[in-house]
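Section 5: illustrative case.
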């Protein structure tokens, strides 16, 4: 499937008009988008913004247990689902009475069986537009700095997923910051390939919104990533740039069949969402002599870009200096600023920093200081030229192929099993995925269960990347502090010792 920029412009206004005129969408409403990558992802996003509402993009791998949680927490009134995710969506909305309309996204030239009461997106795309929506866009909101337009869900530094309130100003500022780094090396006539899922804030802003603004052709795909299919797309469409994550770069470096494809058009790869080793960077560039690799860093709370290398001044192993209009400091455990080459937690301040977490002032206060600094939870150091190097994470979040996994969420699933008395989840290193979740489980005195059975129990309730592929270990006791907090540090140290 493909869309032109004229298609985008027409569809965006038509759908926005339908949202306002037919569905009565107002600025306090939330539209949830539960869909894999699709040619209409960008116009759906922009139409929701134009209608004055906010959009919460949801991982299409979310299960029927996980989806209602986000729908309820985001206060979604409209759910847009792809035909492939519709059955799960319809089951989930049974628990969400606030959802008034379900809209299905179908593929071109495919006659999807749309259930009664479900609206086909094609009807919205063909709706008669109201040009007044585009004539006075400044009137959509009273304040673009205090109205969320995008509501991705993140675990922040720790804990259960939270709605990250990103305003119009946050997103626009971050697009301009990205443009300041990218514009010289990435002119509009260059094509981009990005297999990354658009619901993820990295691809959402960088791979979808930025090209839509600048006029780049984007090649993407849906469904499970296939390295050889990706290589074939490069050979066929000849993109000059790629947005990737470390596991894909590892495949480019090591998979024997990569040599069978002509990837010479690819001049630059941007890697983000998880740390990339200097060794893998070098291995990719050695194998693809026409291609350079650079890293960037960010998080949902930063819209997402916080630091990035440029095409003309990058350092191997570094995520680059902070982007324009942004200041950073590295602090010790007492909050004192540290000089170059000393590791501490990274604090960030800039126009791309979120408003806060939706309806969660306590968690917002934990993440944002009174003076506007974002506590990132990342352990870093910087060199004499201001280039940042991510060394570890203060936060307990696990990154599996770039996807965030909250230990508390998996612990809650484990504790639902009648044989489990207590549980703790930490990360283990994995060459392919970066990290994987490992569970430490204490069983009830009169209960027995195998790790395989418990694995399948969790597997049936979570998205694939959240599965306990790092293993399950049965222990007599979960280490905890006097206040009852799980001492994950002890478990992580145990895992590292086993790894060595």
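Designed sequence:
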């Amino acid at each position: 499937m493909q869309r032109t920029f004229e298609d985008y412009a027409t569809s965006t206004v038509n759908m926005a008009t339908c949202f306002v005129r037919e569905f009565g969408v107002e600025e306090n409403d939330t539209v949830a988008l539960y869909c894999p990558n699709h040619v209409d992802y960008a116009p759906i996003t922009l139409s929701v913004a134009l209608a004055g509402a906010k959009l919460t993009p949801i991982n299409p791998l979310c299960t029927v247990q996980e989806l209602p949680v986000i729908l309820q927490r985001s206060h979604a009134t409209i759910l847009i689902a792809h035909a492939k995710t519709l059955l799960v969506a319809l089951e989930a909305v049974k628990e969400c009475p606030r959802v008034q309309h379900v809209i299905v996204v179908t593929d071109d030239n495919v006659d999807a069986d749309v259930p009664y009461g479900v609206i086909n997106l094609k009807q919205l795309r063909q709706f008669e537009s109201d040009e007044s929506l585009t004539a006075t866009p400044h009137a959509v909101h009273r304040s673009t700095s205090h109205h969320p337009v995008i509501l991705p869900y993140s675990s922040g530094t720790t804990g259960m997923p939270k709605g990250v309130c990103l305003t119009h100003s946050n997103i626009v500022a971050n697009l301009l910051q990205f443009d300041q780094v990218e514009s010289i090396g990435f002119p509009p006539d260059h094509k981009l390939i990005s297999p990354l899922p658009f619901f993820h804030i990295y691809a959402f802003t960088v791979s979808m919104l930025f090209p839509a603004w600048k006029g780049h052709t984007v090649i993407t795909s849906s469904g499970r990533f296939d390295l050889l299919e990706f290589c074939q797309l490069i050979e066929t469409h000849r993109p000059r740039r790629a947005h990737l994550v470390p596991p894909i770069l590892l495949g480019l470096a090591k998979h024997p069949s990569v040599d069978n494809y002509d990837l010479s058009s690819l001049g630059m790869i941007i890697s983000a969402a998880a740390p990339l080793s200097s060794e893998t960077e070098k291995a990719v560039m050695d194998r693809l002599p026409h291609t350079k690799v650079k890293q960037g860093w960010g998080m949902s709370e930063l819209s997402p870009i916080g630091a990035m290398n440029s095409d003309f001044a990058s350092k191997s192993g570094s995520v680059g200096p902070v982007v324009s209009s942004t200041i950073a400091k590295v602090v010790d455990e007492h909050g004192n600023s540290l000089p170059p080459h000393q590791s501490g937690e990274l604090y960030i301040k800039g126009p791309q920093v979120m408003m806060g977490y939706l309806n969660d002032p306590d968690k917002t206060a934990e993440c944002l200081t009174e003076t506007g600094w974002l506590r990132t939870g990342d352990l870093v150091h910087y060199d004499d030229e201001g280039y940042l190097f991510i060394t570890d994470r203060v936060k307990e979040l696990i990154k599996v192929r770039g996807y965030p996994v909250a230990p508390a969420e998996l612990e809650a699933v484990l504790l639902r099993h009648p044989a489990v008395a207590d549980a703790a989840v930490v990360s283990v290193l994995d060459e392919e995925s970066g990290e994987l979740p490992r569970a430490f489980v204490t069983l009830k005195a009169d209960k027995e269960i195998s790790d395989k059975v418990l694995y399948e129990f969790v597997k049936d309730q979570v998205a694939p990347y959240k599965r306990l592929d790092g293993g399950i270990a049965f222990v007599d006791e979960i280490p905890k502090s006097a206040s009852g907090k799980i001492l994950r540090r002890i478990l992580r140290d145990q895992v590292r010792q086993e790894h060595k």
